[in-house]
Amino acid sequence: MRIYIDSANLEEIQQAADFGIIDGVTTNPSLIAKEGRDHHDQIRAICGILDGDISAEVVSTDTEGMVAEGRDLAKIHDSVVVKIPLIRDGIKAVGRLASEGIRTNVTLCFSPLQALLAAKAGAYLISPFIGRLDDLSQDGMDLVREIVKIYDNYGYSTQVLAASARGPLHVKEAALAGAHVCTLPYKVFDKVFDHPLTEIGLEKFLADYRRSMMVHA
Ligand code: G3P
Fold first, then answer.
1. Which of 8, 38, 123, 164 places its Cα 20 to 30 Å from the Cα of 73?
2. Strand pairing report for 53-57 and 24-26
3. DSSP structure class, residue 110
4. What is the pLDDT of residues 62-89, one digit of tens each?
5. What are phi and psi of 134, to 5 degrees?
6. What is the pLDDT of residues 15-47, one digit of tens each?
């Protein structure tokens, strides 16, 4: 499973990139707004940090506007994947952009049938939002499982990107469900490293080593 960082913060992205295991970045207008910089400048800067898919979202809501914005975003860097909301005009824009060789990430997906439409339109990625469904006491991971199953049934090439992950359990379940990608806020990525038995085990190994060195000193 590929791991993306869900952030527009350059320091966080650099910190994550330094591990050498991050495959991309997802942004959205809310994340970029937090950084207080021009949208395109921020995307350009992110592309300079990491070699991988960098999702950048359009803010138009009509097909022509989304296609025009998508073309502009795609010109920033080859890594850019244009994020398009799952609305009627968005589905039309996905097909238009796909015919020009521009990859899209269809976002704000909350149902398996929405995901079917995105695949038929030629989306490169579909982003089901797990956490936001969990917040409404619906099992967000069921949506990921259903999309994976539907795409497998018909051999769609659209890849499933589990988004809106809130903790390590989401990451594990996304991997078990067969999601191609999971995008994580930096704080969730950081938690995935930890297990108390790793810390305890390492302390014991090092204490035993120090003791044995004292015996042989
Ligand atoms: O970037 C899309 C998605 O991951 C947003 O997550 O936490 O705002 O529901 P969240």
1. 164
2. parallel
3. -
4. 999 999 999 999 999 999 999 999 999 9
5. -55, -40
6. 999 999 999 999 999 999 999 999 999 999 999
Angle at 78 between CA 29 and CA 86, to 5 degrees: 40
Q: Is the pTM of this model over 0.85?
A: yes
Alpha helices in the chain, H assignment, sequence order: 10-17, 29-35, 39-49, 63-76, 88-99, 112-121, 130-134, 140-154, 168-177, 186-192, 196-215
Rounded to 5°, angle at Cα 155 from 145 and 96 = 100
Residues 155-160, mean pLDDT to the nearest whole number: 98
CA distance 123 to 102: 9
Kindly state if the Cβ of 26 falls inside 6 Å of ligand 1: yes
Is the C-beta atom of 159 inside 6 A of ligand 1? no
- Measured CA to CA, the distance from residue 27 to residue 38 in angstroms comes to 13
Distance, in Å, from the CA atom of 182 to the CA atom of 18, rounded to the nearest integer, reads 18
The residue with tokens 């009627």 is 88
- Residues, the chain, total? 217
- Alpha carbons 50 and 58: distance in angstroms, whole number: 21
For 37-77, give the secondary structure using H, E and C: CCHHHHHHHHHHHCCCEEEEECCCCCHHHHHHHHHHHHHHC
Ligand 1 centroid – CA 64 distance (Å): 26
For ligand 1, the distance from its centroid to the CA atom of residue 153, given in whole angstroms, is 28
